[in-house]
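Q:
My hope is that you can spare some time for a protein that puzzles me. I hope you can help me see how the letters and the tokens relate. Thank you; the sequence and its tokens follow:
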Amino acid sequence: MKGVPNEHSVAQRSARGTFWSMVSNATGLLTGLFTAPLYVQYLGEAAYGSLLLISVIILYAELVDLGISGGCLRHTSAALRCGEVHRIPGLLGTAWLIQVAMASVGTVVLIGFSSWLMRSLLQIPDFLLAEVIFAFRLNAVSFWLNFVSGIPATVATAWGRFDIYGKVSAISLILKAIGGVGAAGLGFGLVGVGFVSLFVDSFVLGYNLWMANRFFSLFPWRLTWDKKSLRDILLFGRAITLTAVFQRVMAHWEKILLGRYVSASIVPYYSIPHSI
């Protein structure tokens, strides 16, 4: 297990973390702006609009995190600062087991209700329905990969490497943008874009597990279950959950309404300026 960095090192790493967080946010905005016209050209308005609606559904599904990642990060960092390293296996293990269980249940629910969500809730056009359902199921598997990657990704941050998350996020966004547009341009449609996301998210999960093992050796084999850690994590995560629910619902609900009551084809023309 690596030691805790000193205050000077933490300040430097915090600055790098802030920088890479800004890079990640800018990357998300720029890739969206540059890829949107290409997706519309290669996929068509209705298909790209459906892809955006799929991303909103997946974004809402991520709310089942219940603030566990934030709570785990907070308590793991505090345990390191206070020298209570004996608590770390219980904190990481409890949080990760909950996330794996929630991710698995969430993925099964998303896949099981995929036809209803696409047909009845979003009212995807019949000529796109089969392709969109398949793409949505691929995204549901990507949801599992992203969700399970949450706790491993917090390990490096807890140890003071605030920059790693931003770097990985920026790189994955670029890879998804290049790969997704390439798949669409080659005629693989929404399914091809979904497989690109699946591949990139698998890589990110593998990298986060490897990085977690560098800071906390034998991750995840040394993890344990601890009821006290569960209570501490959930108590801290309540406020995060309420904030996340409000932000995400208020930021994206109108896209669902546009897709359902107007047309999926109109969603790209709303989402692009809205994101700016």
Remarks:
- The two ends are 42 Å apart (CA to CA).
- The longest helix spans residues 7-43.
- The chain is about 80% helix and 0% strand.
